[in-house]
């Protein structure tokens, strides 16, 4: 199958059948799904209601060729197996994306993935493993990501062998098993089977670990000057015209919430009124998120989000405005709801695109069986990341230097460090237990070590020198040379 234009679609399905089988079957035994391609061509997919699968499979990714619309049956089988084993939706999507990347690698290098020669150097998995290791060496791919990709492909080959027999690939196995010994947590030496094609990942403390806060990734708090530049951009006329992005970024700065939680907030979450006590200029409203609530959280953990009431009031003004009302109308139209109830209105997403779609799909929505779904992947905030890369980061680099880096998740670290600095004004002892408690509660940390990273985080030598570069440029003084930078770093490290 030619797969140079392979894409992922998604169907809620039972078992796919051919058009001939569909026409020969009784109407009650089959269902037909028709969808439209990007160029306006209407195509149909046929599914059987008689299936060995004992439950409906919702939003299963299916790998298609955009030219022939042919389904890659073997890879789709692997995805169906994952769903039958109740693998998490996000994991199934990751598997699907990994298979698409492997199939495209085979296409680009004229490799037939079904042919596994005797010479291991020519086997598709081995060649793909070497390719991934090249990307690691070039700094393009993280070792852990490469390990996940090759594991997905090996699992796919195992699925084919399990479902079609051990001789599916002929007399030569697609990968090479080997026995390895390891020591378990109790100190016992054990044997395990692994594959030579697996990519080894050595867990080492990175040399630049002091530059980051480990909290769901390597986070770097924006320094005060960088925060000022970001606020200037968010308050500029250009960004104010895209009020959703402005409010999304500001909400992150004011709450430290993850992007997933912010983008799955509902109107109900801000439908509150608070009379501020005498002497209070502001107070925090607690929004609940997680498994038991509307908004999502990492690993569905029940958490509290502290939102300043003044910001709640700003969001309420936005929700009651015509811009949001139009987007919410499109949202319900997309769902086929003409007269939404009060409860449905209150559960609508707080942030919607101009097409009335969410920026990030709630887990609860993905579990709703929708036989007409053809979207290949769940929405996971890609529009926000694109906006940051295209409209915010270039402006920040103009003002802070081309080497400036910034990820949305860094706003969580920024909130935590700002909170720490505010608490230090109340509790002068730098390592006060109350500071730990407050940060741990606001950011919902399970591990105290993560909170310690926030409490102890300080600008490092590299960051201080970057700021000095910026200062010297602003006042017209020659920027430090590389040798001067190295000399300064040595002095900093020596105290």
UniProtKB/TrEMBL annotation:
The keyword Metal-binding does not apply. It comes from the Bacteria. Keywords: DNA recombination, DNA-binding. InterPro entries: DNA_brk_join_enz, Integrase-like_cat_sf, Integrase_recombinase_N. The keyword Secreted does not apply. This is Site-specific integrase. It comes from Thiomicrorhabdus lithotrophica. The lineage of its organism: Bacteria, Pseudomonadati, Pseudomonadota, Gammaproteobacteria, Thiotrichales.
């Amino acid at each position: 199958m030619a797969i140079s234009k392979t894409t992922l679609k998604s169907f809620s399905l039972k078992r796919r059948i051919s058009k001939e089988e569909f026409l020969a079957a009784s109407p009650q035994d089959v269902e037909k799904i028709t969808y439209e391609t990007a160029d306006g061509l209407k195509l149909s997919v046929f599914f059987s209601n008689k299936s060995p699968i004992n439950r409906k499979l919702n939003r299963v990714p299916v790998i298609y060729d955009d030219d022939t619309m042919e389904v890659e049956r073997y890879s789709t089988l692997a995805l169906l197996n994952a769903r039958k084993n109740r693998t998490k939706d996000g994991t199934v999507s990751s598997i699907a994306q990994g298979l698409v990347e492997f199939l495209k690698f085979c296409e680009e290098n004229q490799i037939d993935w079904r042919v596994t020669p005797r010479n291991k150097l020519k086997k598709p998995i081995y060649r793909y493993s070497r390719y991934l290791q090249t990307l690691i060496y070039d700094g393009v791919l993280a070792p852990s990501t490469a390990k996940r990709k090759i594991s997905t492909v090996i699992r796919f080959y195992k699925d084919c062998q399990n479902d079609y027999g051990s001789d599916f690939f002929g007399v030569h196995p697609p990968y090479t098993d080997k026995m390895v010994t390891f020591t378990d947590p109790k100190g016992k030496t054990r044997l395990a089977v692994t594959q030579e094609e697996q990519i080894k990942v050595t867990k080492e403390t990175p040399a630049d670990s002091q530059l980051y806060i480990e909290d769901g990734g390597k986070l770097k708090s924006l320094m005060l000057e960088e925060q000022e530049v970001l606020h200037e951009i968010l308050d500029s006329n250009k960004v104010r015209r895209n009020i959703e992005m402005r409010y999304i970024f500001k909400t992150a700065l004011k709450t430290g919430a993850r992007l997933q939680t912010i983008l799955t907030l509902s109107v109900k979450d801000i439908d509150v009124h608070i009379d501020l006590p005498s002497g209070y200029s502001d107070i925090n409203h607690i929004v609940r998120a997680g498994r038991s609530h509307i908004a999502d959280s990492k690993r569905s953990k029940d958490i509290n989000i502290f939102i300043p009431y003044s910001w709640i009031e700003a969001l309420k003004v936005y929700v009651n405005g015509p811009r949001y009302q139009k987007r919410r109308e499109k949202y319900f139209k997309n769902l086929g709801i003409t007269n939404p109830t009060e409860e449905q209105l209150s559960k609508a997403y707080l942030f919607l695109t101009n097409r009335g779609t969410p920026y990030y799909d709630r887990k609860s929505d993905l579990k709703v069986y929708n036989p007409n779904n053809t979207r290949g992947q769940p929405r996971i905030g890609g529009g926000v990341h694109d906006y940051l890369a295209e409209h915010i980061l270039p402006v920040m680099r103009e003002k802070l230097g081309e080497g400036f880096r910034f990820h949305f998740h860094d706003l969580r670290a920024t909130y935590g460090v700002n909170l720490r600095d505010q608490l230090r004004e109340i509790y002068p002892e730098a390592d006060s237990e109350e500071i730990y408690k407050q940060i741990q509660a606001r950011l919902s940390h399970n591990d105290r070590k993560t909170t310690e990273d926030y409490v102890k985080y300080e600008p490092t030598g590299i960051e201080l020198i970057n700021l000095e570069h910026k200062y010297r440029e602003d006042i017209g003084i020659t920027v430090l040379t590389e040798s001067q930078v190295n000399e300064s770093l040595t002095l900093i490290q020596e105290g």
